[in-house]
Amino acid sequence: MTLTRRTLVSAAALLPFAGVLRAAEPDLAGLSDITRAVKPIDARERAGRLARAQSLMKANGLRAVVIEPGSSLDYFTGVRWSRSERPTLAVLPVEGEPCIVTPFFEEPSVRETLAIPAEVRVWQEDEDALALVAGFLRDRKLASGPIGIEETARFFLVDRLAAQLPGAKLINANPVVRGCRMIKTPAEIALMQAATDVTIAAYRWTYPRVEAGMTGADIGALMDAATRKLGGDPEFALVLIGEASAYPHGSKVVHRVSEGQVVLMDCGCTVGGYQSDISRTWVYGAATTEQRKVWNQVAQGQQRAFAAARVGTPAGAVDDAVRRMYEAAGYGPGYKLPGLSHRTGHGIGMDGHEPVNLVHGETTLLAPGMCFSDEPGLYLPGKFGVRLEDCFHMTATGPKWFSEPPRSIDAPV
Protein backbone atom coordinates (compact mmCIF):
# COMPACT_ATOMS: atom_id res chain seq x y z
CA MET A 1 0.00 0.00 0.00
CA THR A 2 1.33 3.45 -0.93
CA LEU A 3 1.07 5.90 1.98
CA THR A 4 0.25 9.48 1.01
CA ARG A 5 0.52 12.46 3.35
CA ARG A 6 -3.26 12.43 3.64
CA THR A 7 -3.22 8.73 4.64
CA LEU A 8 -0.58 9.39 7.29
CA VAL A 9 -2.56 12.29 8.77
CA SER A 10 -5.71 10.19 8.88
CA ALA A 11 -3.87 7.33 10.61
CA ALA A 12 -2.38 9.70 13.17
CA ALA A 13 -5.80 11.12 13.89
CA LEU A 14 -7.08 7.64 14.69
CA LEU A 15 -4.34 6.80 17.21
CA PRO A 16 -6.15 8.25 20.25
CA PHE A 17 -9.13 6.06 19.41
CA ALA A 18 -7.26 2.77 18.97
CA GLY A 19 -7.49 2.15 22.69
CA VAL A 20 -11.22 2.86 22.57
CA LEU A 21 -11.69 0.10 20.02
CA ARG A 22 -9.69 -2.34 22.13
CA ALA A 23 -11.79 -1.39 25.18
CA ALA A 24 -15.01 -2.05 23.24
CA GLU A 25 -13.88 -5.47 21.98
CA PRO A 26 -11.06 -6.67 24.24
CA ASP A 27 -9.26 -9.93 23.60
CA LEU A 28 -10.05 -12.02 26.67
CA ALA A 29 -8.71 -15.31 25.36
CA GLY A 30 -6.10 -15.57 28.10
CA LEU A 31 -8.63 -15.34 30.95
CA SER A 32 -10.86 -18.03 32.47
CA ASP A 33 -13.28 -18.40 35.36
CA ILE A 34 -11.35 -18.68 38.64
CA THR A 35 -14.45 -19.02 40.84
CA ARG A 36 -15.56 -22.53 39.89
CA ALA A 37 -14.49 -24.03 43.22
CA VAL A 38 -16.29 -21.36 45.25
CA LYS A 39 -18.81 -22.76 47.74
CA PRO A 40 -22.08 -20.81 48.02
CA ILE A 41 -23.84 -20.12 51.29
CA ASP A 42 -25.62 -23.36 52.20
CA ALA A 43 -28.63 -24.38 54.28
CA ARG A 44 -26.53 -25.05 57.38
CA GLU A 45 -25.05 -21.56 57.24
CA ARG A 46 -28.48 -19.96 56.89
CA ALA A 47 -29.84 -22.01 59.80
CA GLY A 48 -26.98 -20.71 61.91
CA ARG A 49 -27.87 -17.14 60.95
CA LEU A 50 -31.48 -17.56 62.06
CA ALA A 51 -30.36 -19.18 65.33
CA ARG A 52 -27.96 -16.29 65.97
CA ALA A 53 -30.68 -13.73 65.18
CA GLN A 54 -33.15 -15.40 67.52
CA SER A 55 -30.54 -15.55 70.28
CA LEU A 56 -29.89 -11.82 69.86
CA MET A 57 -33.63 -11.12 69.86
CA LYS A 58 -33.96 -12.83 73.23
CA ALA A 59 -30.93 -11.00 74.59
CA ASN A 60 -32.34 -7.64 73.48
CA GLY A 61 -35.98 -8.23 74.38
CA LEU A 62 -37.32 -8.28 70.80
CA ARG A 63 -40.24 -10.47 69.78
CA ALA A 64 -39.62 -10.32 66.02
CA VAL A 65 -37.70 -8.49 63.29
CA VAL A 66 -39.24 -7.17 60.06
CA ILE A 67 -37.03 -6.90 56.96
CA GLU A 68 -37.53 -5.37 53.51
CA PRO A 69 -35.89 -6.58 50.26
CA GLY A 70 -32.17 -5.92 50.09
CA SER A 71 -29.02 -7.60 51.32
CA SER A 72 -30.45 -8.35 54.78
CA LEU A 73 -33.40 -10.20 53.26
CA ASP A 74 -30.97 -12.22 51.14
CA TYR A 75 -28.70 -12.79 54.15
CA PHE A 76 -31.42 -14.33 56.33
CA THR A 77 -33.75 -15.97 53.76
CA GLY A 78 -31.94 -16.21 50.41
CA VAL A 79 -34.73 -14.19 48.77
CA ARG A 80 -33.28 -11.80 46.19
CA TRP A 81 -35.94 -9.23 45.45
CA SER A 82 -36.28 -5.56 44.59
CA ARG A 83 -38.19 -2.92 46.50
CA SER A 84 -41.32 -1.46 44.97
CA GLU A 85 -44.61 0.06 46.05
CA ARG A 86 -45.84 -3.55 46.48
CA PRO A 87 -44.17 -4.75 49.69
CA THR A 88 -42.43 -8.07 50.05
CA LEU A 89 -41.32 -8.56 53.65
CA ALA A 90 -39.77 -11.14 55.92
CA VAL A 91 -40.71 -11.53 59.58
CA LEU A 92 -38.17 -13.31 61.76
CA PRO A 93 -39.87 -14.42 65.00
CA VAL A 94 -38.00 -14.92 68.24
CA GLU A 95 -38.90 -18.62 67.98
CA GLY A 96 -39.96 -20.85 65.12
CA GLU A 97 -39.92 -20.45 61.35
CA PRO A 98 -39.94 -17.04 59.64
CA CYS A 99 -42.74 -15.76 57.47
CA ILE A 100 -42.48 -14.23 53.98
CA VAL A 101 -45.26 -11.80 53.00
CA THR A 102 -45.48 -11.09 49.26
CA PRO A 103 -48.04 -10.22 46.55
CA PHE A 104 -50.04 -13.22 45.34
CA PHE A 105 -48.79 -12.98 41.77
CA GLU A 106 -45.15 -12.68 42.91
CA GLU A 107 -45.14 -15.81 45.09
CA PRO A 108 -43.74 -18.22 42.45
CA SER A 109 -40.86 -15.83 41.68
CA VAL A 110 -40.10 -15.19 45.35
CA ARG A 111 -40.00 -18.92 46.05
CA GLU A 112 -37.31 -19.37 43.37
CA THR A 113 -34.65 -17.98 45.72
CA LEU A 114 -36.22 -18.73 49.12
CA ALA A 115 -33.53 -20.82 50.80
CA ILE A 116 -34.92 -21.51 54.27
CA PRO A 117 -38.02 -23.22 55.69
CA ALA A 118 -40.61 -20.46 55.98
CA GLU A 119 -44.33 -19.84 55.90
CA VAL A 120 -45.42 -17.75 52.89
CA ARG A 121 -48.47 -15.50 53.19
CA VAL A 122 -49.75 -13.70 50.09
CA TRP A 123 -51.83 -10.57 49.69
CA GLN A 124 -54.07 -9.45 46.84
CA GLU A 125 -53.96 -6.05 45.17
CA ASP A 126 -56.87 -4.72 47.23
CA GLU A 127 -55.31 -5.86 50.55
CA ASP A 128 -52.65 -4.39 52.85
CA ALA A 129 -49.41 -6.38 53.15
CA LEU A 130 -48.85 -4.97 56.64
CA ALA A 131 -52.15 -6.48 57.77
CA LEU A 132 -50.65 -9.89 56.95
CA VAL A 133 -47.49 -9.06 58.88
CA ALA A 134 -49.60 -8.04 61.86
CA GLY A 135 -51.71 -11.18 61.48
CA PHE A 136 -48.66 -13.42 61.55
CA LEU A 137 -47.40 -11.68 64.69
CA ARG A 138 -50.79 -12.08 66.38
CA ASP A 139 -50.97 -15.75 65.42
CA ARG A 140 -47.54 -16.29 67.01
CA LYS A 141 -48.58 -14.20 70.06
CA LEU A 142 -45.79 -11.69 69.34
CA ALA A 143 -47.91 -8.66 68.46
CA SER A 144 -47.40 -6.86 71.76
CA GLY A 145 -43.76 -6.27 70.78
CA PRO A 146 -41.21 -4.86 70.93
CA ILE A 147 -40.83 -5.45 67.19
CA GLY A 148 -37.50 -4.67 65.53
CA ILE A 149 -37.43 -2.92 62.14
CA GLU A 150 -34.37 -3.37 59.92
CA GLU A 151 -32.75 0.06 59.64
CA THR A 152 -33.18 0.59 55.89
CA ALA A 153 -36.95 -0.09 55.86
CA ARG A 154 -38.99 2.68 54.25
CA PHE A 155 -41.05 4.91 56.53
CA PHE A 156 -44.43 4.21 54.91
CA LEU A 157 -44.10 0.54 55.84
CA VAL A 158 -43.22 1.28 59.46
CA ASP A 159 -46.07 3.79 59.62
CA ARG A 160 -48.58 1.27 58.27
CA LEU A 161 -47.37 -1.47 60.60
CA ALA A 162 -47.74 0.88 63.56
CA ALA A 163 -51.35 1.51 62.50
CA GLN A 164 -51.96 -2.26 62.38
CA LEU A 165 -50.33 -2.83 65.78
CA PRO A 166 -51.23 0.23 67.89
CA GLY A 167 -50.11 -1.47 71.11
CA ALA A 168 -46.72 -2.60 69.85
CA LYS A 169 -43.41 -0.78 70.24
CA LEU A 170 -41.48 -0.61 66.97
CA ILE A 171 -37.74 -0.15 67.45
CA ASN A 172 -34.48 -0.32 65.52
CA ALA A 173 -33.37 -3.91 64.84
CA ASN A 174 -29.66 -3.04 64.68
CA PRO A 175 -28.72 -5.10 67.76
CA VAL A 176 -29.94 -8.17 65.86
CA VAL A 177 -29.23 -7.43 62.19
CA ARG A 178 -25.89 -5.72 62.71
CA GLY A 179 -25.10 -8.20 65.44
CA CYS A 180 -25.31 -10.97 62.84
CA ARG A 181 -24.05 -9.31 59.67
CA MET A 182 -21.06 -7.42 61.05
CA ILE A 183 -19.38 -10.62 62.20
CA LYS A 184 -18.51 -12.66 59.11
CA THR A 185 -18.22 -16.45 59.24
CA PRO A 186 -15.48 -18.44 57.50
CA ALA A 187 -17.90 -19.14 54.62
CA GLU A 188 -18.46 -15.42 54.12
CA ILE A 189 -14.75 -14.63 54.39
CA ALA A 190 -14.06 -17.25 51.70
CA LEU A 191 -16.53 -15.60 49.30
CA MET A 192 -15.03 -12.17 49.94
CA GLN A 193 -11.58 -13.62 49.28
CA ALA A 194 -12.82 -15.06 45.99
CA ALA A 195 -14.23 -11.68 44.94
CA THR A 196 -10.94 -10.04 45.88
CA ASP A 197 -8.97 -12.58 43.87
CA VAL A 198 -11.09 -11.83 40.80
CA THR A 199 -10.59 -8.07 41.13
CA ILE A 200 -6.83 -8.38 41.60
CA ALA A 201 -6.58 -10.66 38.56
CA ALA A 202 -8.66 -8.20 36.53
CA TYR A 203 -6.37 -5.34 37.59
CA ARG A 204 -3.30 -7.30 36.51
CA TRP A 205 -4.85 -7.93 33.11
CA THR A 206 -6.12 -4.36 32.65
CA TYR A 207 -3.10 -2.35 33.82
CA PRO A 208 -0.73 -3.13 30.90
CA ARG A 209 -3.55 -2.46 28.41
CA VAL A 210 -4.11 1.17 29.45
CA GLU A 211 -3.09 3.43 26.56
CA ALA A 212 -2.82 7.12 25.80
CA GLY A 213 -6.12 8.57 24.65
CA MET A 214 -8.30 6.25 26.72
CA THR A 215 -11.01 7.72 28.93
CA GLY A 216 -12.01 6.45 32.34
CA ALA A 217 -15.01 4.75 30.73
CA ASP A 218 -12.72 2.94 28.27
CA ILE A 219 -10.53 1.60 31.06
CA GLY A 220 -13.57 0.69 33.16
CA ALA A 221 -14.95 -1.31 30.23
CA LEU A 222 -11.73 -3.33 30.09
CA MET A 223 -11.88 -3.96 33.83
CA ASP A 224 -15.52 -5.06 33.72
CA ALA A 225 -14.92 -7.38 30.76
CA ALA A 226 -12.00 -9.05 32.53
CA THR A 227 -14.00 -9.35 35.76
CA ARG A 228 -16.84 -11.16 34.00
CA LYS A 229 -14.47 -13.55 32.22
CA LEU A 230 -12.79 -14.32 35.57
CA GLY A 231 -16.12 -15.26 37.15
CA GLY A 232 -17.15 -12.10 39.01
CA ASP A 233 -20.17 -9.84 38.62
CA PRO A 234 -18.87 -6.26 38.17
CA GLU A 235 -20.22 -3.82 40.76
CA PHE A 236 -18.31 -0.66 39.86
CA ALA A 237 -15.24 0.45 37.91
CA LEU A 238 -14.50 4.08 38.74
CA VAL A 239 -11.49 5.40 36.82
CA LEU A 240 -10.25 8.94 37.48
CA ILE A 241 -7.58 10.53 35.29
CA GLY A 242 -5.41 13.57 35.96
CA GLU A 243 -7.05 16.35 37.97
CA ALA A 244 -10.22 14.25 38.37
CA SER A 245 -8.27 11.99 40.73
CA ALA A 246 -8.16 14.88 43.23
CA TYR A 247 -11.90 14.41 43.80
CA PRO A 248 -12.67 11.06 45.48
CA HIS A 249 -15.66 10.29 43.25
CA GLY A 250 -14.41 12.15 40.20
CA SER A 251 -15.72 14.84 37.90
CA LYS A 252 -18.18 15.09 35.01
CA VAL A 253 -15.37 16.41 32.79
CA VAL A 254 -14.02 13.73 30.44
CA HIS A 255 -10.26 13.25 30.88
CA ARG A 256 -8.00 11.16 28.65
CA VAL A 257 -4.85 9.30 29.57
CA SER A 258 -1.68 11.14 28.63
CA GLU A 259 1.97 11.24 29.65
CA GLY A 260 2.50 12.13 33.32
CA GLN A 261 -1.18 11.84 34.28
CA VAL A 262 -2.31 10.07 37.43
CA VAL A 263 -4.68 7.16 36.83
CA LEU A 264 -6.79 6.21 39.89
CA MET A 265 -8.95 3.10 39.66
CA ASP A 266 -11.53 2.05 42.27
CA CYS A 267 -13.13 -1.27 41.31
CA GLY A 268 -15.07 -4.13 42.83
CA CYS A 269 -17.16 -7.16 42.00
CA THR A 270 -19.47 -9.70 43.61
CA VAL A 271 -18.91 -13.44 43.95
CA GLY A 272 -21.59 -15.53 45.64
CA GLY A 273 -23.26 -12.38 46.95
CA TYR A 274 -20.14 -10.90 48.57
CA GLN A 275 -18.12 -7.94 47.39
CA SER A 276 -14.58 -6.75 46.84
CA ASP A 277 -13.39 -3.13 46.83
CA ILE A 278 -9.84 -2.32 45.71
CA SER A 279 -8.22 0.93 44.54
CA ARG A 280 -4.95 1.35 42.68
CA THR A 281 -3.17 4.54 41.62
CA TRP A 282 -0.25 5.01 39.26
CA VAL A 283 1.16 7.47 36.71
CA TYR A 284 1.01 6.87 32.98
CA GLY A 285 4.62 7.40 31.99
CA ALA A 286 7.14 8.94 34.38
CA ALA A 287 5.97 10.05 37.83
CA THR A 288 7.07 13.40 39.23
CA THR A 289 8.80 13.80 42.58
CA GLU A 290 5.57 15.15 44.09
CA GLN A 291 3.47 12.27 42.75
CA ARG A 292 5.92 9.74 44.19
CA LYS A 293 5.98 11.51 47.54
CA VAL A 294 2.18 11.55 47.89
CA TRP A 295 1.89 7.93 46.72
CA ASN A 296 4.41 6.83 49.35
CA GLN A 297 2.60 8.80 52.06
CA VAL A 298 -0.68 7.08 51.22
CA ALA A 299 1.05 3.68 51.28
CA GLN A 300 2.35 4.55 54.76
CA GLY A 301 -1.15 5.67 55.76
CA GLN A 302 -2.56 2.29 54.73
CA GLN A 303 -0.01 0.51 56.88
CA ARG A 304 -0.67 2.86 59.81
CA ALA A 305 -4.38 2.03 59.68
CA PHE A 306 -3.65 -1.71 59.47
CA ALA A 307 -1.32 -1.49 62.49
CA ALA A 308 -3.94 0.41 64.50
CA ALA A 309 -6.70 -2.15 63.83
CA ARG A 310 -6.58 -4.40 66.87
CA VAL A 311 -9.32 -6.43 68.56
CA GLY A 312 -10.97 -4.30 71.24
CA THR A 313 -9.90 -0.99 69.68
CA PRO A 314 -12.65 1.54 68.85
CA ALA A 315 -13.13 1.71 65.08
CA GLY A 316 -12.66 5.48 65.18
CA ALA A 317 -9.16 5.10 66.61
CA VAL A 318 -7.98 3.65 63.29
CA ASP A 319 -9.00 6.82 61.47
CA ASP A 320 -7.43 8.96 64.20
CA ALA A 321 -4.09 7.17 63.86
CA VAL A 322 -3.89 7.90 60.14
CA ARG A 323 -5.05 11.49 60.50
CA ARG A 324 -2.40 12.24 63.11
CA MET A 325 0.28 11.01 60.72
CA TYR A 326 -1.08 13.07 57.83
CA GLU A 327 -1.40 16.21 59.93
CA ALA A 328 2.23 15.82 61.03
CA ALA A 329 3.13 15.80 57.32
CA GLY A 330 1.30 19.09 56.76
CA TYR A 331 -2.10 17.89 55.53
CA GLY A 332 -5.51 18.83 56.91
CA PRO A 333 -6.10 19.39 59.75
CA GLY A 334 -8.98 16.98 60.14
CA TYR A 335 -10.90 16.50 56.92
CA LYS A 336 -9.66 19.71 55.25
CA LEU A 337 -7.85 19.73 51.91
CA PRO A 338 -5.22 19.13 50.77
CA GLY A 339 -5.42 15.95 52.81
CA LEU A 340 -7.77 13.08 53.59
CA SER A 341 -11.32 14.38 53.14
CA HIS A 342 -13.14 11.10 53.79
CA ARG A 343 -13.08 8.31 56.38
CA THR A 344 -10.19 5.87 56.44
CA GLY A 345 -12.46 2.91 55.67
CA HIS A 346 -15.89 1.33 55.72
CA GLY A 347 -17.39 -2.01 56.57
CA ILE A 348 -17.87 -4.42 53.66
CA GLY A 349 -19.59 -7.72 53.00
CA MET A 350 -22.73 -8.34 50.95
CA ASP A 351 -22.85 -4.58 50.44
CA GLY A 352 -19.87 -2.55 49.30
CA HIS A 353 -20.46 -0.19 52.21
CA GLU A 354 -21.72 -1.67 55.48
CA PRO A 355 -21.64 -0.61 59.13
CA VAL A 356 -19.44 0.33 60.80
CA ASN A 357 -16.95 2.84 59.44
CA LEU A 358 -13.36 3.55 60.33
CA VAL A 359 -14.18 7.19 61.03
CA HIS A 360 -13.44 9.65 63.81
CA GLY A 361 -15.83 9.22 66.74
CA GLU A 362 -16.97 5.66 65.96
CA THR A 363 -16.93 3.81 69.28
CA THR A 364 -17.79 0.27 68.09
CA LEU A 365 -15.01 -2.06 69.21
CA LEU A 366 -13.24 -4.12 66.57
CA ALA A 367 -13.93 -7.84 66.88
CA PRO A 368 -12.94 -11.01 65.02
CA GLY A 369 -14.99 -11.43 61.84
CA MET A 370 -15.41 -7.72 61.11
CA CYS A 371 -14.32 -6.65 57.60
CA PHE A 372 -13.17 -3.22 56.46
CA SER A 373 -11.69 -1.29 53.58
CA ASP A 374 -8.40 0.52 54.27
CA GLU A 375 -8.24 3.55 51.95
CA PRO A 376 -6.68 6.68 53.49
CA GLY A 377 -6.25 8.65 50.26
CA LEU A 378 -4.64 12.06 49.86
CA TYR A 379 -6.19 14.67 47.57
CA LEU A 380 -4.60 17.85 46.21
CA PRO A 381 -7.35 19.91 44.51
CA GLY A 382 -6.35 21.22 41.11
CA LYS A 383 -3.49 18.72 40.87
CA PHE A 384 -4.15 15.04 41.53
CA GLY A 385 -5.11 12.51 44.19
CA VAL A 386 -3.84 9.13 45.31
CA ARG A 387 -5.98 6.37 46.78
CA LEU A 388 -4.76 2.90 47.62
CA GLU A 389 -7.47 0.60 48.93
CA ASP A 390 -7.28 -2.95 50.19
CA CYS A 391 -9.68 -4.72 52.52
CA PHE A 392 -8.92 -6.73 55.64
CA HIS A 393 -10.80 -8.90 58.09
CA MET A 394 -10.25 -9.05 61.81
CA THR A 395 -8.95 -12.27 63.37
CA ALA A 396 -8.35 -13.07 67.03
CA THR A 397 -4.73 -11.98 66.59
CA GLY A 398 -5.36 -8.87 64.50
CA PRO A 399 -6.17 -7.85 60.93
CA LYS A 400 -5.50 -9.99 57.87
CA TRP A 401 -5.41 -8.61 54.31
CA PHE A 402 -7.74 -9.89 51.63
CA SER A 403 -5.33 -8.35 49.11
CA GLU A 404 -1.77 -7.25 49.72
CA PRO A 405 -1.14 -3.51 49.17
CA PRO A 406 1.01 -2.59 46.14
CA ARG A 407 4.77 -2.20 46.53
CA SER A 408 5.38 1.07 44.70
CA ILE A 409 3.97 3.57 42.23
CA ASP A 410 5.99 1.73 39.56
CA ALA A 411 4.46 -1.65 40.47
CA PRO A 412 0.88 -0.70 41.36
CA VAL A 413 -0.79 -4.05 40.72
Explain the overall architecture.
The structure is a single chain. A 6-stranded mixed β-sheet has the order 4-3-2-1-5-6, sandwiched between helices. The chain has 413 residues and is an alpha+beta fold. The protein has 11 helices and 17 strands. It starts with a helix and ends in a 12-residue tail after the last strand. The protein has helices at residues 5-24, 43-60, 71-77, 107-111, 129-139, 155-164, 174-181, 186-206, 216-230, 289-308, 315-328; strands at 64-67, 89-93, 99-103, 119-123, 147-149, 170-172, 233-241, 261-271, 274-275, 278-284, 345-347, 354-358, 371-374, 378-380, 384-386, 390-395, 398-401. Mean pLDDT is 94; it is low at 1-15.
